[in-house]
Amino acid sequence: MLRIETPWIGRREALVGLTSTVASLLVPSGLAVAQSDRVATPRQTEGPFYPVDWGGDIDNDLVRVRGEATTAMGQVLHVQGHVFDLRGQPVPDATVEIWQCDARGIYRHPRDAMGSRRLDAGFQGRGRSLTDASGRYAFRTIKPVAYTGRTPHIHFSVARKNGAALVTQMYVQGESLNERDGVLSRIRDVRQRDSVIVKLEAAAQIEQGALVGNFDIWLA
Q1: Residue 10 has pLDDT above 50, yes or no
Q2: Is residue 154 part of a domain?
């Protein structure tokens, strides 16, 4: 069983190991990708709500928060994939961060979770992991939801060891708001735009009632 080797996983290693095994079935290890099919993942804005607090529970399971009695609202989603360079080589030990709004459409950020807007305390809101030797990463989170002005999405930041970060966003295939989303529509290259839109499938083999999506990231 493949395990994501990262100091942030801790108590969820077994779950992520199972997620990684399923990922290997979806995208076989060592699968050759023709050079003509390699498309650099497009850069996108990190948005106004990049997490200001990376303290506390920041592992790769966003559905459970250490010390909270309840788990996150929303449908569980396992997001997994590989980080490659444009030569087709895996990028090990890359730092992968994700952040997204909760099921109520609120970010874990002081500028968003304020006033009468009540944050879901059971949702971690942001997570961090390292890619393993094959470039693989995995997160357990929730299916992203829409909020005013945006189609459902998850923010990603991927940084090579001692390198600059690529910031991008992952979208959900079939969402009606995709066609009208201003950030997504700024990606003019059709292949690049298609590369950040991910098909979600039932993942009963990982977790009952959950979904799974594979999002490979290609660093230029």
Answers
A1: no
A2: yes
- Note whether 166 and 44 are within 8 A (CB): no
Question: pTM of the full predicted structure?
Answer: 0.85
| Residues 6 or more apart whose Cβ sits within 8 Å of residue 45 | 167, 183
DSSP notation for 10-71: GGGHHHHHHHHHHHHHHS-TT----GGG--PPPP----TT--S---S--SSB-S--TT-SSP
Altogether, the residues listed in the chain come to a count of 220
CATH number at residue 208: 2.60.130.10
| Residue 141 near residue 80 (C-beta atoms within 8 A) | no
Residue 96 near residue 8, CB atoms below 8 Å: no
Contacts of 14 (CB under 8 A, 6+ apart): none
Asked if residue 114 is part of any domain, the answer here is yes
Instruction: Please give the tally of structural domains in the chain.
Output: 1
